[in-house]
Amino acid sequence: MSSVPAPRAKRKHRIYESKGEPFFQAFLILFFALLSITFVYPYWHVLVNSFTTPNYASASGFRLWPKEFSTDAYRHMLSANFLWSGYKNTLIVCVLGWLLSITGVVLAAYPLSKKDLPLRGLFTTLILVTMFVSGGMIPTYLLVNNTLHMRNSFFAILLPHCISTSHVIIARNYFMTLPSDLEEAATIDGANSWQVLWRIMLPLSVPILATISLWVIVSNWNAYFNCLLYITDPKKFVLQVVLRRIILTDSKEMTAASEAVANTTDTDIVTLRAASIMLATIPIICVYPFLQKYFVKGVLIGSLKG
Questions:
Q1: Number of C-beta neighbours around residue 192 at 10 A
Q2: CATH number for the domain whose boundaries are 82-304
Q3: Which of 223, 96, 104 is nearest to 167 (CA)?
Q4: Which band of pLDDT confidence, cut at 50, 70 and 90, is reported for residue 194?
């Protein structure tokens, strides 16, 4: 009768750290801490200037707290008609742009993820070409303004950059990672292609859709160039254009909703600039944390499979 060999003892793997490892870790912590300060302090500097008096804000130097606390800049900005119209127009652009972009990305990416799609390689190549070749600003302007007659329309801001090629490719790669057995089971149960997409694929694609949604919302929130090209009616200016006029051109008519604001001095514009920057960035900062958790999962899965 043969004897059963005794199981071998498991070897314990030890991780040995070099003598310089603690110093390297300390250096990394210090380096990234200083790097974080360089990112945070400019924003904090603007926040301090927005809550101080014009004389203190116009003085140069390093400051961590407003010595002369004042909310006059916010009171003036919040009483400005153009600020609220800018908020309204930017929200319209963000919501409408998100709907158009997500719809276009899904309708383009989902068919391209199917290997049995006729001419799938040709369609993918044509989409990829647009990442390297474009019509240019002048032909686009002539198309939107002269041919489509969309001047002073929000569609003139949205349609030229409605669908991003990179978003389509990332969404297509994500759809390719989803198991095809789910689609086959739903088809056997009598679901058509639209039902499969709406009830099965989209709920499973929340991470990538949330990631693309955040990219689209942030892009539309910060967009101003198309508004400068196609919008001439001040009542349709987006928030970033209003902010640009306040910061770059000292345009007091953008903030002059009352006689008190219209009579501001040149020194007051420093605090008005700081307050306008804070009012423009705080809303998007409040939205960002709710979608940040989807970033790593959505981007990594959407970029693995080609």
A1: 10
A2: 1.10.3720.10
A3: 104
A4: confident
